[in-house]
Specification:
Length: about 240
């Protein structure tokens, strides 16, 4: 029998710093909820909006796989390895913090917002050499199917991380139904609804809801609205 957990959008932690409006699915910074610490190795899922010309000053990370998925606008990244890059909708960015890295992230535009997901995953190897990568994906490849955007394998589709995790994104027409098979025994799937209404294993979910399921090998997903957009995070449940 599968186990499930649902996190409705309105139950997330919230911090509005003026320049940054952030919703936290799991405990982060001043939001502490003992029942919302992580889902397996998925530690942070922040839904961030950054005001024009503002951003995160230089700050350090270590021993964490940090994934950024831009949803709107242009986010400029600068780090202690010498990388200077801009990520936009359709891009996926990965930073393996490993032994330690410092970086900053800014909205480079003066007239529009940046919206992006910041996701942290516990690594399966500690103190690796820090690494940065980003790729641009063809969003048309996720129409009525899941496009893999992250995996453990450098030769596979998408970016890669130091963890037995697979991320996929899909955009679905109303009433379209599909199955997703979990990639690895012992993994669970955390679904984050980016837009629209979706039913997963009989549970109705709406925009920005989160739904975790484990102790199963596949899940059935049906779109209940046009252009329903979903991020699936297939992750080990044991840290």
């Amino acid at each position: 029998m599968a186990n499930t957990v649902i996190h409705k959008a309105e139950t997330r932690g919230h911090a509005n710093h003026g320049w940054l409006n952030s919703f936290h699915t799991f405990s982060f910074a001043s939001y502490r909820n003992a029942e919302r610490m992580h889902f397996g190795v998925l530690r942070v899922l922040n839904d961030d909006t950054v005001s024009s010309g503002k951003g995160f000053g230089t700050h350090p990370h270590d021993n964490m796989e940090i994934i950024s998925i831009p949803l709107e606008g242009d986010l400029e990244h600068k780090d202690s390895m010498g990388n200077l890059a801009v990520i936009r909708k359709g891009d996926i960015q990965i930073m393996s913090a490993g032994t330690g890295i410092s970086h900053s992230e800014y909205n480079r535009n003066q007239d529009e917002l940046v919206k992006f997901l910041q996701i942290w995953v516990f690594p399966n190897k500690r103190n690796v050499t820090p690494r940065y990568d980003q790729i641009t994906l063809n969003e048309n490849d996720r129409h009525n199917k899941f496009q893999q955007v992250l995996s453990p394998n450098p030769d596979d589709e998408g970016v890669w991380i130091h963890q037995d995790a697979w991320f996929s994104m899909g955009n679905f027409d109303k009433d379209f139904s599909t199955e997703y098979s979990i990639k690895r025994a012992g993994n669970g799937v955390y679904a984050f609804i980016l837009k629209g209404d979706v039913t997963i294993e009989g549970t109705l979910l709406n925009t920005r809801d989160g739904f975790g399921i484990w102790d199963t090998d596949k899940i059935t997903i049906t779109a209940n609205s046009d252009d329903a957009q979903i991020l699936l995070m297939d992750v080990p449940m044991e840290i």
